[in-house]
Amino acid sequence: MNRIALAPIALAFALAACNQGPSVSLTNASPEEVAKAVDKAGANQKMKPGQWELKLEVIEIEGPGITPDMQAAMKAQGSRTDSKCVTKEDVDKPMSEILAGAPSSQCKFSKYSIQGGKVESEMSCPGPGGAMTIKSDATYTDESITAVAETNMTMPTGKAHSKMRISGKRTGECTTPAAPAKK
């Protein structure tokens, strides 16, 4: 999966723990506009720092030339569970900083909403040989998240589709060292 396909998922994880707090609802907005609205509304409440277990599961993957054997191999290679130390510095970043490196100049969210422990988004991105749409739905608390993301691509060689499930939970205080902060 490329970075742009994971952008809505990153947004959902970064927004974990809004619960019943502020809400945001936008249509036809750029990732930068979403980040500004989230920051302005104070809707980027934080996940609780500590050790997090994050699981990525590739549920579906289809495309031109992808055989059933290739599908099985891609699902196995793409699915994983990681443990990560989430620091206070990680969760204190504003949404605009989280999205700073995302390739987003041509992408648009046709829908983006945060309310009551749920994030829903639909984003479209044009590409040199076609287009990509990403739809994600996530539910969360400050100590857990579950998200499903579907990506559809139109390419010169045909259409491709993938569906992933992401789940995460805080397992306690950090037990693995955090990566050094980037300067």
Could you characterize what this model shows?
There is one protein chain. The protein is of the alpha+beta class and 183 residues long. The chain has one domain. 23% of the residues lie in helices and 44% in strands. The protein has 5 helices and 8 strands; from the N terminus they run αβαβαβααβββββ. The longest helix is centred in the first third of the chain and has 12 residues. The N terminus is likely disordered.
Total individual domains? 1
How far apart are the first and last residues' alpha carbons, in Å? Answer: 26 Å
Structural class: alpha+beta
Mean pLDDT: 81
**What order do the helices and strands follow?**
HEHEHEHHEEEEE
Main sheet: which strands, in order across?
A: 1-4-5-6-7-8-2-3
Give me a quick take on this structure.
The protein has 183 residues and is α+β, with helices and mostly antiparallel strands. The chain has helices spanning 3-14, 31-41, 68-78, 88-91, 95-98, and strands spanning 24-26, 50-62, 80-86, 108-115, 118-127, 130-141, 144-155, 158-172. It has an eight-stranded antiparallel sheet.
